[in-house]
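Here is an idea for our session: we take a single protein and study its fold together. To get us started, please write out a protein record for me. Once you have written the record down, we can walk along the chain together.
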Amino acid sequence: MPTVSVKRDSLFKALGQSYSDDEFQKLCFDFGLELDEVTTEQQIIAKEQGTESSKGASEEIIYKIDVPANRYDLLCLEGLTAGLLVFLEKIPQPRYKLIYPTSQNKLEKITVKSACMNVRPFVVGAILRGITLTKESYDSFIDLQDKLHQNLGRKRSLVSIGTHDLDTIKGPFVYNAEPPKDINFKPLNQDKEYNGEEIMDLYAHHAQLKQYLPIIKDSPVYPIIYDSNGVVLSLPPIINSDHSKITLNTKNIFIECTNTDLTKGQIAVDILVSAFSQYCKDKYTVEPVEIIYEATKEVVRSPTLQYRSNEINSDDAVNFIGIKETPQKVAKLLSKMCLKSQVKNGNILSVEIPPTRHDVIHARDIYEDIAIAWGYNNILKTVPKILSVGKKFPLNKLTDHLRQELAQCAFTETLTFALCSREDVSDKLGWSFDQIPAVTISNPKTLEFQVVRTTLLPGLLKTIGANKNMPLPLKLYEISDVVLRDPQAECGARNQRRLCALYYNKSAGLEVIHGLLDRIMSLLEVPWNVNKTDDGYYLEATEDPTYFSEYCANVIVHGKVIGKMGVLHPDVLHKFDLRRPCSVVEINIEPFL
């Protein structure tokens, strides 16, 4: 969930009322939010820098509020206070509208060249006229853009917003894509011009911007926006031009939003202009921009600030939630959630969905807002009106039984990470990664979490490595899921519940692991089969680079291999920084259900 940091005093001033921390926490809960932390700017900076204090930082109280991931309209102070004030019925719901110049021909235009189709094909625009920003509202404006970039825009890969002082540039504007060497302008807060390649080098080590460079770096052309005089506005999704930067003196803001997902681009602009149009001379008004696509000759205007309507059955809604209320009361509850509603015919409600509520796409979303406005804690608990008996999932029930028995065998349970590095499941175990059916993470945060584990063994070995000073022997086990790539599965992969036990001592102790396996099979009522037929279980010698040659065996139950048992190869132990022998058994427990 995204977190919004707002100054407490500014928030209370906007709400027109002061609250204690507990009172505001309750208000957040009633509105479907959560007050995550009460802190100060000084404490935040000190925590980030790892110091006890931070000179010059404010000691003003800051509220960190967790916002649902789909409520983009609440990601800034302006949107949050508007939503709370409507919820508290202190103000009517804002009505957003488009305004046009005296002549339709004077609408600002952006022409999208055909070359853009190969890099960032879409653009959306808007203009805020007669706006007045303070230092606080300016910071909030920039912060909302950043949050939209990170959440809705998936770190600018889908959406990138540029904001410009309209009085410093002249339309119509051109959105084109050109070779990096042909692009020259002065980036934001820089003192000289750079071309496209030099800008990539300039921001290669920038703390914030370096993460966005790969989005276009390998493209033969970079997206670029010019005005009618050839002045560069921005190089999306990297940086704006210093020429058109907005300041506290800016009165007219031109917004351009390039994107690879047109719907998300429209949502981003709708949220941005809805939140800050309250600072315009004519409150809640936005001037649209005309977009002309050269390749298709299509002409569109944005934003549309469209109000949608939906009809729901009030009886269906209250029955779904589990409350009893009249259609008139339900309509009032929805209006508190910025969904203006009225009773149409009998129990049919006509619900108006504003341009700020793009999260409402189904009747169930409207039901959710009714439940929030009613209060989850106010919904009475009732016995289900169906005949059913709850019971534990069979696989989990089996897992719990085995855990108890392994603990009684003096083995200690561990719980290790489900993600690991590529080397953990391949090279360190003597395998090539190409031979492993591993599910790879497309954007791993660290080298330690690149793939989903295909075996429980690396996690246990790392646990041993972190506890080498503990008295010997070390007897560990884990019963958890691994994930295996499977083309036949609906999602291309499947989970498999496994049991892995490990014995680490001065001697390998294979007999200890073998005894544990016999105990497990005895509990599962699977007999030892001397004749090695499909009835019962037996061991069969095999070769595996993870284990000592001739000290490895397949565990076969009812004719099918369910796992392996053996003494780990010294190379494997060395790669996990272990110096003593180790025996392991790892089996799939799902066949025993």
The longest helix spans residues 135-150. The chain has 15 helices and 29 strands. Residues 119 and 310 are 37 Å apart (CA to CA). The first strand starts at residue 3 and ends at 7.
